[in-house]
Amino acid sequence: MTERAKIGFQDVRDVVLERIQNRVWSQGDLLPTEQELAEEFGCARATVNRALRELADRGIIDRKRKSGTRVAVSPVKQAKLEIVLTRQLVEDRNANYRYALVERKEETAPGWLASQLDLPMGAKVLHLRAMHYADNQPFQYEDRWINIAAVPKVVDADFTTVGPNEWLLGEVPFSNAELTFAAVPADDELSDYLACAKATPLFQMERTTWFRSQPVTFVRMSFHPGYQMRSQY
Amino acid sequence: MTERAKIGFQDVRDVVLERIQNRVWSQGDLLPTEQELAEEFGCARATVNRALRELADRGIIDRKRKSGTRVAVSPVKQAKLEIVLTRQLVEDRNANYRYALVERKEETAPGWLASQLDLPMGAKVLHLRAMHYADNQPFQYEDRWINIAAVPKVVDADFTTVGPNEWLLGEVPFSNAELTFAAVPADDELSDYLACAKATPLFQMERTTWFRSQPVTFVRMSFHPGYQMRSQY
DNA sequence: AATATCATTATGTCTATACATAAGAGGATA
DNA sequence: TATCCTCTTATGTATAGACATAATGATATT
């Protein structure tokens, strides 16, 4: 028997996506209404609604009340970039992870940092410098500032065994962040810690983190020469 | 009157998120069932379901049939990285965009490319090299290979006025891709085109694109010295 | 003790119905 | 022509009820 199973929202979603990919509906085209699609597929409008909502979330289609649903003109491609702990990055390569604290110092936020984190004048910060190793090879140099006002308990953490990232993940697990990526030449300090020649190109990632609009931390991570970051969409 | 508006799924979502952030429910904790939450909020179970589904999509909670809903132990942080056209990157900086084709050549895929794109031996590719300028300053050098079998029409496109990225977006608007980022030293060619000293650190992004499991294109984009890429989550 | 069976339970999904809301279309008015 | 109004329409959301499904835990069997 060709007794076919009932149509679910995933079926609708996939068929609609396929039609868009096959140019049955081209960029900018108006799709049938939910009602019409529901009739075509023999399902409830709510089912079509969920299917189309998912496609809209993915940026495949644009929806507007009264106007209807259109195939997105310029599909907003956005890559998902998994933010993982350095420990995990290292262990994913089947390498042995080692962490070492270089320096721990309480200080007043320098001007550039106060500006970066939007801190008041004279705000207290904890400045940490640390190294991450993969099989005892330098993997990443970490330069971090933590807003003490946002995480008062940080003054009691010594960070000799647990890295600041892991510690913060436990204290402030849900936060927003802004990232920047760049290529920079190794300066004296970086070339020293990362065991490379001066001016070697290094991949650098900076991250500013907030929790409920309050600045928490700014970190600059410099990776060993040749490091590649991966992502997909 | 304290006549409060009816509870919607967004309210439920936000209240649950707030409780998680406030550690009312900590990492790994079991949340009340949908039924219980629906009773608490005075709404239908479907409403709670949608609220929790959104939080699950964001990686805030984990849900499993019969077991229930738990606060995610290691919230998967993932940054959203908008993939934009080079033209847009330039114009977003209020700079004048200019594109120039450097070379266009049909060839058989070299071994490393066949391997990268998973192409059969002797597959035909179109090799393009191009420059993107911002206010007539070198902005990005683009080195691209397109799988002719996947996009036969590409042999008729001359790419003198429209860049390959924009052209492909029109032809293959929906695709998957894998990205890698790295810092590399400028070689002779890059230092020439990007007007910088040899060995200058350059931010480089590589992208491999598929459409329905068929490899479409591989591109290596090298940015001018000092370029920063931004993202957030 | 190990394995198969079955009831239970929380989530996953679908449906029909209802009402809310944004926004386009047309007409009336100034 | 420009502005305001109402009507209409497609999407957005809520609901009660139903059944599906995965996973757990208990029970019975080997």
UniProtKB/TrEMBL annotation, chains A, B:
SMART domains: HTH_CRP, HTH_GNTR, UTRA
Keyword Transmembrane helix among UniProt keywords: no
Domain of life: Bacteria
Domain HTH gntR-type span(s) in chain numbering: 6-74
Segment forming the signal sequence: none
Pfam families: GntR, UTRA
Protein name (record): Putative HTH-type transcriptional regulator YurK
Taxonomy of the source species: Bacteria, Pseudomonadati, Pseudomonadota, Alphaproteobacteria, Rhodobacterales
Gene (UniProt): yurK
